[in-house]
Amino acid sequence: MENDDVLDPAEGPQQRPQSLMLAFFGNHVLEEGDLCVSSGSVIDVLGRVGVGEQAVRSTLTRMVNRGLLSRQREGRRMYFGLTPHARRILEDGHARIWTRGAVDDAWDGTWTLLGFSLPDSWKSRRHDLRSRLTWSGFGPLYSGLWIAPGEVDVTAVVEELGLSDHVKVFRAQAADLTDIDQMIRDTWDLESIAARYTSFDARWTPHLASEPDTGSGSGSGSGSGSGSDDDPIGTRLRLVSEWLWTIRTDPRLPARHLPPDWPAGPAQETFRRVAARTEEPARRMARELLDTARAR
After folding, report:
1. Are the beta carbons of 5 and 131 closer than 8 angstroms?
2. Are 116 and 163 in contact, with CB atoms under 8 Å apart?
3. Burial environment of residue 271 by CB neighbours within 10 A (0 to 12, 13 to 18, 19 or more)
4. Does 225 score more than 70 pLDDT?
5. Exposed/middle/buried for 196, CB within 10 Å: 0-12, 13-18, 19+?
């Protein structure tokens, strides 16, 4: 299983049901321990962001079959919770959003290099590896040599895919003759990454139009804001899933090697302010709306 189970890099802001589903569980279940949510509650919340009942039901079944969700019956109702594998995926996404952030101002000049050579017949495993590397911040320096800024631990990724015998990992610093700015432009599509941030900022800045200027949110959406949105639970679900899609292909390149008008910082500020504004209203609404049970 790969982190594309959370986000498909090609899906765009209007995301597939599975991405929205895991964003929902990340918002309302991840930090609640062994909590399960009824299928009816999931149908209600995802319906608020345009996902139909049949799509929700089929996605729930598919995610159970893929080992991302557990399922238990309580009377006539079915409840769904996170598996350990799904928790690992969501915890990584949570850290990506709230701990590491979108801007790297403290790069130490090191790189992680990963080389791999896989048989031609391993197309699926090659795709899985590349997808996981992209989420981890790597880009293709050459076809079989990928690079990421800083020290990136890919042990779990490589072992999970069963590729330990086919991958070599190194830590390195660039020699003086290497033009790092040019290497970055050759390895990553900066225009596409920047466009995602610019588009996100344009979509979500209007949500702050009536917000008092109380400064930016920090931490995991700290601050309560006015919460004036009519549907905070749906708004927050769209916000988090769109932000994850936005940062999906951003390796957090060193700020000093990016254009001075790089839009990640302003977009992140918008994200955190809207997150701060919707956090408490969404939690209140979840307490009133969600039908939950403890996992057995």
Report:
1. no
2. yes
3. buried
4. no
5. buried
pLDDT of 123 higher than 60? yes
SS3 187: helix
List, in sequence order, every residue forming a beta bridge with 169; answer none if it has no partner: 114
Among residues 291, 287, 250, which one has the least CA distance to residue 102? 250
Residue-wise DSSP of 214-229: -----TTT--------
Structure tokens at 200: 């996100």
> Rounded to whole angstroms, how far apart are CA atoms 296 and 225?
36
> Closest by alpha carbon to 170, among 111, 239, 215?
111
Tokens read off for 272: 């955190």
Eight-class DSSP state of 69 = E
Q: How far lies 94's CA from each of 114, 167, 179, 202, 211, in Å?
A: 25, 27, 33, 23, 25
CA 65 to chain centre: 22
Question: Residue type for 227, please?
Answer: G
* Total-model pTM: 0.84
| Distance from C-alpha of 105 to C-alpha of 286, rounded to nearest angstrom | 36
Q: How far apart are CA 103 and CA 142, in angstroms?
A: 25
The owner of tokens 């979108």 is 102
Rg (CA), the chain: 20
Measured distance CA(61)–CA(69) in Å, rounded: 9
| 167: its two tokens | 């991958």
Among the listed ranges 35-39, 85-89, 159-163, 208-212, which one has the minimum average pLDDT value? 208-212
What would the mean pLDDT of 91-119 be, rounded to a whole number? Answer: 91
Phi, psi (degrees; rounded to nearest 5) at 106? -125, 30
d(CA 14, CA 170): 37
- What is the C-alpha to C-alpha distance for residues 180 and 110, in angstroms, rounded to an integer? 12
Handedness of CA 244, 268, 94, 77 (dihedral sign): negative
